[in-house]
Amino acid sequence: MIPHNPVIAFRADASIEIGTGHVMRCLTLARAMQDRGARCHFVCRDLPGHLAERIRSQGIECHLLPSPDVREDDGVTQHSRWLGVSGARDAIESRAVLERLAPGWLVVDHYALDITWEQAARPEAARLLVLDDLADRAHDCDLLLDQNLGRTSGDYDGLVPAQSPRLIGPDFALLRPEFAAQRANSLARRQTPRLRHVLVALGGVDREDVTSRVLDKLAACGLPDDAHITVVLGPTAPARDAVARRAAGMPIRTELRVGVDNMAELMASADLAIGAAGGSTWERCCLGLPALIAVLAENQAPAAKAISDTGAALLFGNGADPVAGFFDALSRAKQPACLATMSALAAKIANGKGADRVAHRMSQEGPS
């Protein structure tokens, strides 16, 4: 149960440039907190590809900040351009909404925001949870979450108050409960590995359309005749039509699904995933799903290397060519022994209970 103020506000954005991952993992935490009696609100900027309707479909109110009339980048952080406005303007507009909500907790998941915004926008009496993956800027927070493999608490020394707890690593990965629910079934079916169902999911947006390039590679790689491919994109993906054309011309059965609500089920039924090294990494690990992973954003590189070093996934691509080395990685993954090894190692990394762990910690900490 939430011990004091039951209102929790989330400040996160989704857009064609940002992608969908920050909002989606915040939604997972919001649902876990709702189960404990919280009332959750999202504050998001009206950017192309925002997810306000998706948020509202979960029974959570979403307050949209005005669309930028002129794009601004004040350069305060490496990702300041993601806001579309200056950090100072965003803090003023966000605080106007947050003061009305008077939250007990404010959750911030945004690479463009740092200590300056936090001190300006945080309402009185609200405790602050920051979700970060970069450890590249200071935060004035009461609790910090970095769910990435290879990260250490010491990476945030000097960046967060010394007394603020730090929740570090995939034990705290924010996965929807359906992943934990599918875990036992998914692990059981991998006892006899085979390569028949390939899941291609390179992010909800895949702005550079790496999906089409991967499909071109799969078309030439000689998958078994009875194999099939499932491709997943988000509803705001700009390359949907191009991917649909590629899928229709594949030599083996290939289905494109847009805006799915059963990703855990799809992953549990897949024998191999081809995906980005973002938040879906921990979903695949929870289900023991072997994967070929690509770094599609700079912030994904450290976690991608960390998971590749464990042997739980095979890394392909580079900055110049996101599909470089794909054939070699797939050739290794076709071997049953390789699939079995990746599955066993992946399953040790995350078990799907991270959202409950974070929600419990927030409930125990309670607003001041």
Summarize the structure in words:
This protein is an alpha/beta fold and 368 residues long. The protein has 2 domains: 7-174 and 352-365, Rossmann fold (3-Layer(aba) Sandwich); 177-347, Glycogen Phosphorylase B (Rossmann fold, 3-Layer(aba) Sandwich), CATH 3.40.50.2000. Helices cover 35% and strands 17% of the residues. It has 13 helices and 13 strands. The strands form 2 sheets. It has a 7-stranded parallel β-sheet with strand order 3-2-1-4-5-6-7, sandwiched between helices. The protein has a 6-stranded parallel β-sheet with strand order 10-9-8-11-12-13, with helices on both faces. α7 (240-248) links the parallel β9 and β10. α1 packs across α13, α5 (177-189) packs parallel to α8 and α6 (210-219) runs parallel beside α7 (240-248). It is globular and about 60 Å long. The mean pLDDT is 94. Substrate binds at residues 176, 283. InterPro entries: Glyco_trans_28_C, PseG. Residues 260-316 form the Glycosyl transferase family 28 C-terminal domain. This is Glycosyl transferase family 28 C-terminal domain-containing protein. GO terms for molecular function: hexosyltransferase activity.
